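# nightly structure sweep
# worker-07 picked up a monomer target from the shared queue
# config: single-sequence mode, recycle default, output format = structure tokens
# input follows
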Amino acid sequence: MKVFYIYLSLLIFLFACNSTPEIDDATMLDGKIISDSSLIHPEKYLISAKYPSPDASQLNKPVLIAAHGYSATTFEWDEIRTFSNTDASFLVSQVLLGGHGRDYADFKAATWKDWQSSIIIEYEKLEKLGYKKIYLAGSSTGAPLIINLVKEGYFNQHIAPKGIFLIDPIIVPANKTLTLVGLLGPILGYSTTELASGEKGKWYVYRPQETLQQLMNLIDMTRKDLEDGITLPQSSFMKVYKSSVDDVADPISALMIYKGIKTATGAKIEVEMEKSKLHVFTRLAGRDNYALADSILQQKVFLEMRNKMIQ
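# output follows
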């Protein structure tokens, strides 16, 4: 009981007491002015929009659909697009999760199924255009959204992804107070997060309790699905990269995925624990501080992903 009250106190501290946040429309992602450039210029982010009539050389390239995490935007995957431009050996589609990149009200109203819908839409557009070498990457909450597609048999009716990369997947939250959102969320309304100067306008400052409950619903369901066991589509692989110290996604998340997912042949998937203290270590832009080792790690992982896609 004492532990419960400690968690309760922490949650009350983390959540705002006013149910209506004060939003600056001009500078905050939460505001009514749509500033997310992927909504304004989709052709800069989505391969289906950039190449609506792809030629044979474009269709022959691997395409990586990259899904960001909860409350973030396509900004989370900007650096792999920059990396892909160095030799143009693969293409990157940065999907904006449904309900994200818009104002607070839209974010608040979106379900995790809405978040997932943008992954499905881009996948089916690429499939219809004739791309055969499709890969998926999910960071943080993007990971359980992709795992759910596998669990629900989505790829039984579509071409299977060649491979799936998961970066710091969240199955178990590191902040255990998140588990109390169902109890206190409706009372407190929303939580507030601190952003670095370079992150402003790229992440939501205010996180409605409705969205936190959606997040908990998603990861609770995924955890149970992993306990039941999940099999990858035929000829698909999965590689998980997980920070060993992570204040958002408990490292046990990687272990649960390792135990819960097998290839179509019954083989183990690949999991690599990384010496990093960053959540989503592949995204360094916008952070106030990161080490040289983090930059080296990011490039190492990008290179490994590239090599797996073009081999």
